[in-house]
Amino acid sequence: MIDFDVKEINNSWNEDHIKNLERKYNIKFPQDYSFYLQHYGNDYIKEDYHFIPPEGLSNKIKLTQFEIDSFYGLYNDENNIEDKINFYKDLLPADLIPIADLPGGDLVCIGIKDDTQNKIYIWFHDMNGENIFLVSDSFKSFIMNFKRINVEGNNLENVTLNMSDKLNAFLTNASKKMK
Question: What's the CATH code of the domain at 48?
């Protein structure tokens, strides 16, 4: 699932690195996610592996699979988890931190407080109204719901775009002016 062909660094972090991160942001990672950060992180996902959400979710958001671009980690690169936490802290609810991104700017987040603790959510940045959806009760079950998908059969006929009403109105208005 991890695209090791594009991963340039291979290093394990010790538990102290994780504990320092948890202390700095006053969070406690679940054991499975902590293990992932220690031994992996900053990973790109092969394009033919997609996350398959629970059935009920696809009724709400009209998507039956999600492509994940990359998971964040401890390496100091464009997928550094601390940089992402700081960048999104004013956009996400206080009980979520980003752990991965989807194409187009949407995020996979992990809950860090109370009822959200250790649960995995997808945050849609341009959706009106409810834009955060529970997709898994744990990091492990989230990972276990990745499936290999035949991407060669994809074409523009089976692509669905979800746009906010504001963006749709803006684009419609802009296209009318272009005519």
Answer: 3.40.1580.10
